[in-house]
Design brief:
- By secondary structure, the chain is an alpha/beta fold.
- The protein has three domains: 289 residues, 3-Layer(aba) Sandwich (Rossmann fold), CATH 3.40.50.1000; 51 residues, no CATH class; 190 residues, Glycerol-3-phosphate (1)-acyltransferase (3-Layer(aba) Sandwich), CATH 3.40.1130.10.
- It has 20 helices and 17 strands.
- The chain has a seven-stranded mixed sheet, sandwiched between helices. Strands 4-3-2-1-5-6 form a six-stranded mixed sheet, with helices on both faces. The protein has a two-stranded antiparallel sheet with strand order 14-15.
- Helix 16 links the parallel strand 9 and strand 10.
- The longest helix has 20 residues.
- It starts with a helix and ends with a strand.
- The N terminus and C terminus are likely disordered.
Length: 569
């Protein structure tokens, strides 16, 4: 980027930090290309193709419609109409479930960390935050829930009796429709649009950008960038998600390979001293140093002294990213053992190296066997003086939000008779979110909390101790405690739940069975965003409800629908 272009780009975050407070100021966000990298509709289409849920004829027709739209030969209404006709007879529930699956598989890792920080800055100012998008609620809702965005305005398909009719609800939340949606939101919640922000990546949103007082092009396309220059609007571009640069792939490959290189480098120590432990200690620290350096992962650590004052101990950390492995190696460095899922053992070379380093591999689907498998770790603590590193969540989370805690680490602390040291990792997902191969440069904030005395713990009071330690993580992360916190505790000692039933799909009115939105549908509770349906159930204006968190009470979500374009996005 040239110096001239660099000068054009400004920090939207700093702009918000300097802004006045109050709910009368709206912070409106487009979705695709603005909050997330790329387009959620593309992920949805390719997933359907991958699952063979579309016929060859449907694929060809869909691609033709998309081509006509991209070349300007078809409007957005035609694009949505083309998509809607393939959905006739499909249950709306199946699409809510499909959206959840897409979020876990694709969308969560596409959320820009910078966009997340921008949203949090608006929230800290008390601004009213909303997503205003031409996409549908099925694409957006899981991300809105993750980001605690209550107001979602979007385009809608018509639904009767829980099934899509094959029609769309007009006007759509596109172009002037977004202006109508924003004005309705402003009227209902007392927003002053002349003092409000709108973030978008596309010139398609020029009407709403011109309507608000603070238009903020974000990741702008060429046409929007030119318009922004003409209007004097500040620009900003994020590069932490989406298609990586060649250097990012090189960084990732070399960082991963450094585990093997570090192990090889430790062999002379093993040969000269005869101590496998000293060799592995050298290898661990070296791997942490090399891998973090190669990826550009800079650690900002508070409470570093707590890493050394209470060893041996049980280190517990919140698991956000595969980068956690190199981060913990750099922090803890020596005399450590850990736990990993059994699938890692089968990874060529790396699995064997982790086994030599004292890693215990467990079957997460079998709680009983997992407990037995971890028994050697107790001896490693009591006999060998090693510290154990374990993630109470059991797996990586899709977002920075803390997941439920399992009790294995807490049982281990009681049996070994050692303290527990919480390591709170704030944003390792900035380096590599779950399901993302690439690792990118980032500054990762870490709080190492003082050791927790476990000498008076007992199995009888274990739930209290789990809640206490989890509460320490929540406080350090700045996240709210759930009202049903005890229900968030998951015991690995309980019998594993049966596989959820596959949700049944309603049939089309025609003799042949309808197409499901996804081959395998996991049954769940009612969708978190829902149009309130009347008896006839073609709603003209509705209030959708969704919880910001599955375990918390639902909150009202404003939708923009029908002629008022209070359609849910």
């Amino acid at each position: 980027m040239t110096k001239k272009k660099i000068a054009e780009y400004q920090s939207h975050l700093q702009d918000v930090l300097d802004a006045p407070e109050g709910p009368q100021i709206g912070a409106l966000f487009d979705f695709d290309g603005t909050i997330i990298a790329g387009y959620s509709a593309t992920s949805m289409l390719w997933e359907k193709i991958k699952r063979r849920e579309m016929t060859a004829e449907e694929v060809v027709e869909t691609l033709n419609v998309m081509a006509q739209y991209s070349t300007g030969n078809m409007g957005f209404s035609g694009l949505m109409t083309g998509a809607a006709k393939f959905m006739k007879g499909v249950t709306e529930d199946s699409y809510f479930e499909f959206g959840e699956e897409l979020y876990a598989k694709y969308i969560a890792r596409k959320v820009y960390p910078e966009a997340r920080a921008l949203i949090e800055a608006h929230r800290a100012k008390g601004h009213t935050i909303a997503i205003v998008s031409s996409a549908t609620i099925y694409q957006i809702e899981p991300t809105a829930r993750d980001l605690d965005i209550e107001h979602v305005l979007c385009s809608q398909y018509e639904v009767e009796n829980g099934e899509f009719t094959g029609n769309i609800i007009r006007p759509l939340c596109f172009g002037e429709g977004k202006v109508i949606a924003a004005e309705n939101l402003a009227a209902d919640y007392g927003l002053d649009l002349d003092k409000s922000y709108f973030y978008s990546d596309s010139y398609d949103d020029i009407e709403l950008l011109e309507r608000v007082g603070k238009p903020r092009p974000l990741n702008p396309n060429t046409k929007l960038r030119e318009a922004a220059r003409e209007h004097g609007w500040p620009l900003e571009k994020y590069e932490s998600r989406g298609q990586g640069k060649p250097v990012d792939y090189i960084r990732t490959i070399y960082a991963t390979g450094s585990l093997i290189g570090s192990a090889i480098a430790s062999l002379p120590i093993w040969a000269l001293t005869g101590s496998q432990r000293e060799a592995m200690n050298f290898s661990t620290g070296l791997f942490g140093d090399i891998a973090t350096a190669l990826t550009g992962c800079e650690l900002e650590v508070t409470g570093e002294e707590n890493l050394w004052t209470s060893r041996p101990c049980i280190f517990v950390f919140n698991h956000q990213s595969k980068a956690d492995v190199m981060i913990l190696a750099k922090l803890i460095r020596r005399d450590m053992g850990g736990v990993a899922k059994k699938e890692v053992r089968d990874t060529p070379v790396i699995g064997k190296l982790m086994e030599l380093a004292g890693t215990v591999f467990v079957d997460r689907a079998n709680a009983g066997s997992a407990i037995k498998a971890m028994a050697p770790l107790i001896d490693a603590v009591k006999v060998d003086g090693k510290s154990i590193v374990i993630a109470p969540e059991g797996t990586r989370t899709l977002s920075p939000k803390l997941g439920p805690f399992k009790k294995g680490a807490f049982h281990m602390a009681i049996q070994a008779g050692v303290p527990m040291v919480p390591i709170v990792i704030h944003n390792a997902g900035d380096v590599a979110p779950k399901n993302e191969f690439l690792m990118r440069p980032a500054k990762v904030r870490i709080d190492v909390l003082p050791a927790v005395d476990t000498s008076k713990w007992s199995v009888r009071t274990l739930n209290e101790h789990v809640a206490e330690v989890r509460g320490m993580f929540l406080e350090a992360l700045g996240q709210a405690e759930e009202e049903d916190a005890l229900e968030a505790l998951v015991s690995e000692e309980s019998t594993p739940a049966k596989k959820p039933a596959v949700a049944k799909q309603a049939k089309k009115p025609e003799p042949k069975a309808k197409k499901p939105a996804a081959k395998k549908r996991v049954a769940r509770k009612k969708p978190v965003v829902r149009k309130a349906s009347a008896k006839k159930t073609v709603t003209k204006k509705a209030v959708a409800k969704r919880p910001a968190n599955r375990s918390t009470p639902t909150r009202k979500v404003k939708t923009a629908e029908a002629s008022t374009i209070e359609a849910v996005k």
